[in-house]
Amino acid sequence: MLKAYKYRLYPTNEQKEMFAKHFGCVRVVYNWGLAEKKRLYAEEKKSIGNVALTNRMRTELKTQQEWLNQVNSQSLQMSLRNLDSAYTRFFKEKKGFPKFKSKKDNHQSFQCPQFSKVDFENSTLSIVKISDIKIVLHRRFEGNIKTVTISKTASEKYYASILIENNERCKQPVPISEETAIGIDTGIKSFAVCSNGEVFENRHYLKKTIGKLAFLQKRHSRKKRITNENGIKVNSHNREKSRKQIARLHEKISNQRLDYIHKITSKLVNDNQIQTICIEDLHIKGMQRNQNLSQSINDVSIGKFYEILSYKCQWQGINLLKIGRFEPSSKMCSCGAINKELKLSDRKWTCKICGKELDRDLHAADTIKKIALKGKIGQELSKLTLGEIVPVDDRRANDLKSILSLNQEAAMSLA
User: Fold this and answer.
1) Strands, E, within 228-275: which ranges?
2) Pairing mode of beta strands 144-152, 225-227
3) What is the spatial distance between Cα 183 and Cα 365, in angstroms, rounded to a whole number?
């Protein structure tokens, strides 16, 4: 199993200078590689791979820019490898075209794939060309170090993410059972509502701090910029001091939110009564386009919650099931009726068919569980009738009917 451990670094001034050189050189090589890829495609309609680009970097770029030899050469190669992965991912998964990096970016990092060493007795980390970096080893690990990533935040804090390979293995998932399954409905009013009745409240970390953040940003806008010896405008001492205050506050909000998500996910996956978790496949980017709710949606951080829950379920052998984003989980009653007039402000509603009073979030979690469990039993779909299948979006109704007819024909042919 591959696991990553993140630790805080306290480098000396000389080590900070070497870090800055690595950040700058990696950024230059990345931008050079992206420019070469774009130029070659625009002029000759060709693409250049990672190996060819790395060879050109050694023979051409490092010859012209000799100061690139001051840093770890493998870190430069890793930047081109990351560029090639991002370039390939754009064409395969349509994730977004790679962008040029800037020294003004809030996050700076470089990777060391080999020859890294951690000394637990002296609490030091050694990488190529930088030795004995003071590190806070609050957790021990056992295994082979694969990659060490050195990063710097906007508040000028340094961290080391150590990827290790150990002898552990993920637990094998148990068979899916309705008794040990729960559905989770995420939202803004409540962070997560489980079908077993457990509710995790939304802490609203950004909302509680937005007043202080606005005050600091307003004060920062009044700070002056000065012109340095080269005629370039830079932040004055007071403006830089104000920028760090805002960055530290943003970092605090992010850490609070991440800590809360880790606590919730750990509680869910370590519960002995839960072996299957059912969630929705939400279109989070589409939800963020709502100007009235975008800030609240970002404050909840549903995407990060699903990401952390996914790998923790894999570690603990928990079945994680997802239903489609078009399933009417909140609008559908247990009798099968769909309330198309339901608004986001309606937290409770009454079914017009059966007259049952429903709590929006709790009933949505229970519906997510039912849809996920029925969708998982695809092999037994021919045994069900259309009335027993939970109604879904109209665009998928014909698909269900066609699947039923195909399964029925296959069963008749086998008979």
Assistant:
1) 233-235
2) unpaired
3) 5
